[in-house]
Amino acid sequence: MKGSEIVLQSVVGVTAFGAVVAGGALFAFSAVVMPALRSVDARAAIASMEAFNVEAPRSALMLPLVGSALAACVAGIWSSVVRADGWAVTVLGCIGVLAAFAVTVIYHVPRNNAFASTDVADAAAWHRYRTGWSLWNHVRVGLYCASGAVLAVAAVLPATRSADGAL
Q1: pTM of the predicted model as reported, rounded to 2 decimal places
Q2: Does residue 80 or residue 1 have the better pLDDT?
Q3: Measured between alpha carbons, how far is 106 from 126 in angstroms, rounded to an integer?
């Protein structure tokens, strides 16, 4: 196996890892934070969510979200150019990572920014926000986790083919 293929496998593996970490962090938010916010009054939930939305772009969460999207661009293009076999699996996983990131950029960021001006006493606005936010967060979680699994397979496929050829 060539050195460049080993580097590509590493990039694909890092992309898979970043996708799974991003999916896991977002899953924790859906599984723990949003249910907890549903259990408090709207004023407290809105204030808390607004605080999360201020902190999130400055947090370590950006590393797997943005990092996996950038790595997916590199891995998808590189794989489609240099791999004769198995490139479609890599590209599929990369498209999933980019789709998950697109949900963040197209849906969550604008929605979070608009929510920043919500009156903390507006319970109806909180209900509308959390319902849509949670649904699309589940979509992100599914895309990140499924893509991470596909990319993990794509990262090891060349090594298994190489081992099969050695037998």
Answers
A1: 0.90
A2: 80
A3: 20
